[in-house]
Q: What sequence folds into this?
């Protein structure tokens, strides 16, 4: 170690007699030449590779948009061979993997992307969808919320609203109504007033989440712009019905075109609402006589229901507690029969409340053994529930 | 440039007061070369290491581009090439490679690691430059056409060849020329792997076997320079993307120990197959060597019709395995077929390396074991990707028998220390299984089959140098203090006529002559102390833990030497003679 060059001065001679200076110069010149050649070759190569990567990616996009996720998967993989660190390619491959049902692999691609861009709305949404498919409720909610508050390069408001909608749909589909409620409220609050389609979509989800008031508001807003919008009429009618606003329900549902109102579900709602309207003795604006008549009619309907229910009950099973309760109520109604005539009720209107209370109790007692009422009985049962809600 | 003129001389000609452009360039040149060439040779060696690193990095960039370009042209741009391409490309490629290797570049045959090792230990650092060109062309065709081999071993040899050429051209000392080949090898491997630490460790662990400060610094500089060069052209991305790694719980380590057993068993199977088949194939008639790479290509192509993943180096497939994109059954099939395909390619004499295939096999095995274990024990915290990553190090350690490099390689490739414990457990299990069932490591086995007697680095590593403690005689000397009277000393020595007499005074030891002591007593006075005698010395002292080689360097000049305690230099542990040392060497060899 530490030995000096063997010859004197600077000029150490190489094996073939070349001086060390000359060899070094040749080395540096070779290095420069090799650098240039390598740069040229690698540039050509990268150009070729990028072209191939872009071609495969475009092919993948075409296949994916055509619904062929499996073929797109191969294309994206090929694209990534030529551009392995391309995050766009990776994201699209992950999307194709997810669409192809290869969820763990898709997640494996997405997680590193997320660690690079934790605020990306797209990546969070893709991860949320995977978690939703895997029924990982907490993960899904976390990623959905991150997507809502994340960055969206294009149309951020639109995208965030869509993610909110997807989150609501996910929560409702899992029956997580308590978690869905704030998401639905946020969705309604963020729904633009000038976008009827979004308002209707929000209204539909609000209906599914049984947020009747918010749904009715949403549909009313739509109807303010287009009073004959069938979807809005149906939604508003349904919301009004569930809120006990039967006259509004009749109003909304009654304006539906024939083909929509022919739907059995809608026609039942409309029919029931009309029956409620026709049977309710507590409607404002009715004369005492009309109230008394409606009460007597209601008593008759309830007694018929009790008879029918008890008859069916005795035929199928021995008398049990519900039937004995129903029997007692029926007996009470029959005993009061003459006292609760139209004339007596007009004379003593306070008895209307007592009589109707008995009607409601009979309908409720019959519901257990004989199932939910239909027709006029359903109308009375609904009036009873409405009164119960209003007068606890 | 302004030149100051002086008034005309008698001759009427203007003259320069300062040097002109050419003179300045000459002055700069002389100053620069003077500075460079005036460096001590070890300093100059470090500067050269950087130059070698840059050259090697450029060579590896061109090599990788050549491989991938060849692959594009021969196999097409798809991961699933057509059957025609899959069958024809490796066959024709094999035919071309066979002819090139045997007729044009015979020096490009064989393992790059062994050739570099041979350059260090046999050929005084000489690696013919033709090897660089030969390896470049033949390996680019072979790997590009789909032979199941990797570019790392050829890159290592190309680096060694470039370094050797530069060293020889600069007329470095013989010692430096011998050391320069490993420096280039580290640079070549580092650029091929994009992992400088692993490359340096590999060269130390497998090629030179010693940790020498000067070489280490040169290798590190060369490796870093080559990686920087490579990255500036091909980007800083790792060879494959490493997925999210999870912190491993204590109980999970058992799962990785199982992976170590599987990896060890697979590496044994592969090694045994090569050990068995290679000599038999070597005995085939010479003309068959022209056709062997083509036959290998055809067989690999046949495998590739169904599973093209086994063709080539397979880095993109490793990437997919790391991201859990294969079922455990497919992973196992890929591992088994890759062993088969790599064995066929290697045994056919096709030039190329086994590093990438070893990583491939390890990743597949790791992924398969991880998936099965996760299905059986749902509480395991590691991802399939973690198992695949650990599997790479595991098979690498078992197959190539380089445990330290394997551990560091996994850490360096992943850039994450999370997997350190699983990697340690798994690689060590695989390494010890491999050692237990296959005595000779891969590279040593190949060298011996080729008739080269190269030092086995693993054997060197395992050797325990005999130490002085093994050879010394305890209680075999009489020790006097300097103040002891001669008469008293002599009386103590009575009855022990064969024992040497040592005198210890302060930190010095001397050997006394019994006859001289007697003369002192007889001729002068009994009141003389031992210190008054002329003993031989001061004697060199030895310690019990010194190697016998160290002792041998000093014992020859003395009939006996004291072995003393390191904590107390006045405390004699024993004595040692040349005969003791030679006897201990004989015993060690017999053991």
A:
């Amino acid at each position: 170690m530490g030995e000096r060059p063997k010859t004197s001065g600077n000029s150490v001679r190489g094996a073939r007699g070349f001086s060390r200076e000359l060899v070094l110069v040749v080395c540096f010149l070779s290095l420069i030449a090799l650098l240039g050649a390598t740069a040229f070759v690698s540039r050509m190569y990268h150009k070729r590779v990028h072209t191939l990567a872009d071609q495969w990616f475009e092919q993948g996009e075409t296949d994916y948009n055509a619904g062929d996720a499996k073929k797109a998967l191969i294309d994206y993989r090929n694209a990534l061979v030529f551009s392995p660190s391309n995050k766009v390619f990776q994201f699209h491959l992950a999307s194709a993997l997810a669409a192809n049902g290869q969820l763990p692999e898709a997640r494996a691609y997405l997680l590193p992307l997320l660690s690079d861009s934790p605020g990306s709305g797209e990546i969070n949404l893709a991860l949320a969808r995977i978690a939703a498919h895997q029924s990982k409720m907490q993960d899904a909610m976390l990623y959905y919320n991150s997507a809502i508050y994340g960055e969206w390069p294009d149309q951020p408001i639109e995208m965030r609203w869509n993610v909110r909608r997807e989150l609501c749909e996910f929560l409702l589909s899992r029956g997580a109504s308590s978690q869905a409620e704030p998401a639905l409220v946020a969705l309604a609050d963020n729904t633009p007033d000038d976008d009827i389609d979004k308002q209707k979509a929000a209204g539909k989800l609000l209906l599914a989440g049984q947020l009747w008031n918010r749904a009715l508001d949403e549909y009313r807003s739509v109807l303010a712009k287009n009073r004959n919008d069938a979807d809005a009429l149906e939604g508003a009618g349904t919301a009004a019905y569930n809120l006990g606003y039967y006259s509004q329900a009749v109003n909304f549902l009654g304006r539906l075109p024939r083909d929509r109102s022919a739907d059995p579900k809608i026609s039942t709602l409309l029919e029931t609402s009309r029956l409620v309207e026709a049977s309710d003795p507590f409607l404002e604006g009715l004369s005492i006589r009309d109230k008394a008549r409606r009460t007597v009619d209601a008593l008759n309907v309830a007694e018929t229901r009790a008879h029918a229910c008890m008859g069916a009950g005795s035929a199928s099973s021995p008398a049990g507690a519900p039937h004995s309760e129903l029997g007692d109520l029926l007996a009470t109604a029959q005993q009061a029969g003459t006292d609760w005539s139209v004339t007596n009720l007009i004379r003593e209107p306070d008895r209307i409340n007592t009589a109707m209370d008995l009607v409601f109790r009979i309908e409720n007692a019959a519901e257990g053994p004989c199932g939910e009422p239909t027709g006029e009985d359903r109308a009375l049962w609904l009036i009873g529930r409405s009164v119960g809600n209003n007068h606890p | 440039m302004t030149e100051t003129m002086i008034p005309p001389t008698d001759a009427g000609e203007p003259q320069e007061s300062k040097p002109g452009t050419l003179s300045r360039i000459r002055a700069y040149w002389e100053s620069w070369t003077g500075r460079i060439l005036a460096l001590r040779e070890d300093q100059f060696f470090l500067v050269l290491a950087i130059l070698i690193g840059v050259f090697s990095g450029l060579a590896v960039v061109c090599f990788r581009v050549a491989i991938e370009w060849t692959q594009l042209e021969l196999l097409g741009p798809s991961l699933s090439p057509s059957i025609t391409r899959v069958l024809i490309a490796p066959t024709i490629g094999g035919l071309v490679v066979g002819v090139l290797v045997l007729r044009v570049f015979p020096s490009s045959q064989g393992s790059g690691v062994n050739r570099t090792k041979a350059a260090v230990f046999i050929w005084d650092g000489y690696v013919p430059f033709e090897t660089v060109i030969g390896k470049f062309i033949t390996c680019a065709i072979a790997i590009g056409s789909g032979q199941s081999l990797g570019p790392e071993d050829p890159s290592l040899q190309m680096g060694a060849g470039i370094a050797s050429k530069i060293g020889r051209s600069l007329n470095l000392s013989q010692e430096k020329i011998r050391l320069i080949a490993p420096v280039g090898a580290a640079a070549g491997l580092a650029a091929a792997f994009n992992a400088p630490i692993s490359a340096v460790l590999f060269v130390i662990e497998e090629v030179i076997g010693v940790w020498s400060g000067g070489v280490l610094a040169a290798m590190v500089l060369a490796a870093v320079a080559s990686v920087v060069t490579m990255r500036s052209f091909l980007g800083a991305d790792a060879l494959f993307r490493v997925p999210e790694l999870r912190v491993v719980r204590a109980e999970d380590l058992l799962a990785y120990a199982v992976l170590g057993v599987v990896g060890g068993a697979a590496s044994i199977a592969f090694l045994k197959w090569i050990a068995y088949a290679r000599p038999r194939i070597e005995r085939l008639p010479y003309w068959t060597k022209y056709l062997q790479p083509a036959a290998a290509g055809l067989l690999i192509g046949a495998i590739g019709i169904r599973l093209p993943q086994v063709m080539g180096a397979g880095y993109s497939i490793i990437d997919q395995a790391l991201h859990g994109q294969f079922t455990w059954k497919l992973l196992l099939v890929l591992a088994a077929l890759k062993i088969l395909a790599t064995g066929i390619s290697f045994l056919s004499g096709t030039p190329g390396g086994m590093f990438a295939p070893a990583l491939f096999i390890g990743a597949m095995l790791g992924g398969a074991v991880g998936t099965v274990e996760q299905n059986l024990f749902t509480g395991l915290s590691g991802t399939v990707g973690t198992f695949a990553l650990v599997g790479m190090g595991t098979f690498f350690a078992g197959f190539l028998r380089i445990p330290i490099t394997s551990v560091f390689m996994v850490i360096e490739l992943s850039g994450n220390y999370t997997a350190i414990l699983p990697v340690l457990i798994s690689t060590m299990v695989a390494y010890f299984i491999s050692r237990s069932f296959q005595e000779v490591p891969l590279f040593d086995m190949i060298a011996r089959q080729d008739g080269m007697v190269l030092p086995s680095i693993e054997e060197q590593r395992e050797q325990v140098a005999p130490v002085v403690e093994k050879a010394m005689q305890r209680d075999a000397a009489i020790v006097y203090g300097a103040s002891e009277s001669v008469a008293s000393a002599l009386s103590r020595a009575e009855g022990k006529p064969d024992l040497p007499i040592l005198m210890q005074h302060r930190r010095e030891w001397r050997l006394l002559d019994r006859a001289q002591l007697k003369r002192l007593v007889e001729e002068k006075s009994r009141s003389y102390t031992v210190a008054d005698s002329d003993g031989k010395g001061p004697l060199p002292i030895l310690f019990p833990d010194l190697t016998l080689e160290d002792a041998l360097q000093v014992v020859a000049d003395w009939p006996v030497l004291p072995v003393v305690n390191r904590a107390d230099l006045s405390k004699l542990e024993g004595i040692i003679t040349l005969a003791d040392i030679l006897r201990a060497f004989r015993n060690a060899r017999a053991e």
Summary: Residues 198 and 409 of chain B are 5 Å apart (CA to CA). Residues 252-457 of chain B form a domain with the Clc chloride channel fold (CATH 1.10.3080.10).
